[in-house]
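Q: Here's a chain of 56 amino acids. Please give me its 3D structure as tokens.
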Amino acid sequence: MIASDERPLASTYILPVLKRAQYDARTPPTLFTGQTVDVRVGIHVQSISNFELTTM
């Protein structure tokens, strides 16, 4: 979405779609039946100027 004119879908649109599809957030994602999808997540930290170990 960075450097793009696209906006994420609003919850008023996406939640009814997920309910109709009987989406379960606790089920591992699948692309093909019986095969799970490897999901990788990364974060980009821009600043840790107010870093306090006690709040971690």
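Q: Can you summarize the key feature?
A: The beta strands are 30-32, 35-36.
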